[in-house]
Amino acid sequence: MGDGDGWADCDLGHTHWGRFGAAGLLAYHRDADGQMWILLQQRAWWGLGGGTWGMFGGATHSHEDGVTGALRETAEECTLDTGLVRVRGTRVEDHGGWSFTSVIGALDEKADVKPASRETRRAEWVRLEEVEDRKLFAPFERSWPLLRDAMKGLVLVVDGANVVGSRPDGWWKDRAGANARLRDALAALNEGVRGVPGPVAFDRCFPEIVLVVEGAARPVADEQVDGVRVVAAPGSGDDHIAGIVRNAEPDTEYLVVTADRELRARCEEAGAHVTGPRWLTDRLERR
């Protein structure tokens, strides 16, 4: 048993379940026809908000972050294999002294999910447009208008040549080595629950990271590492990056890291967000 079960008061004068806060998982899946499905829990009749629908979740323990707590609670309350969830981001509702963390995660398959504890009456995949037809758990009902716009992923596209070239550390003597060091540093961005602030409706994003290399740095793509997809541009790195954002995946936002003005304009025209190398290097240096 953990130490989070129990009631807590917040600075707004409310009483909440979870001595150290609470967290829940909002899992979604988009099928081949483009239909978005949301996994919902119907709460047991005997509990708080009995019979209403919302996300799986509950109290977090003192040693847990919101992501860990949400996935654990979900695994306890239903049969979903939470190891298959691709966490996209988190959104925190802070009441002062108590907070609830909504964890948004994607699933590649609409798995059959059943109740696994007495806290869950039913588990069901619901069409996005039909969520509001259910009798919703009051806190979830309040947050749903914001959460429904947050079900998307972030792809962080890094212009390797530009980022490496932004620091006078001797990179021109060994372009491949400099890009390999950048690759390894990028791999740490999603370790644990660090993530990054992003342009989508999250407090913290856990992006797919794509490092684009060119020229003498192309051999770096021969050695892939967990957490970063290294792509060797066959020609111009700028052209390859512009092509990535022009061919955007559904439910996905793109954040391109570059200081190149022409590339910035091309990416913004294609609908991507753009930030400079300093934004990235500041975060890498905080590891």
UniProtKB/TrEMBL annotation:
Does Ubl conjugation count among this protein's keywords? no
Put simply, this protein is called NUDIX hydrolase
Pfam families listed in its UniProt record: NUDIX
Q: For the Nudix hydrolase domain, which residue ranges apply?
A: 18-151
Could you confirm whether the keyword Membrane appears in this record? Answer: no
Domain of life per record: Bacteria
Q: Which UniProt keywords apply?
A: Hydrolase
Q: Which residues form a coiled coil?
A: none
Q: Which Gene Ontology molecular function entries are recorded, alphabetically?
A: hydrolase activity
Alphabetical list of Gene3D superfamilies matching this protein = Nucleoside Triphosphate Pyrophosphohydrolase (3.90.79.10)
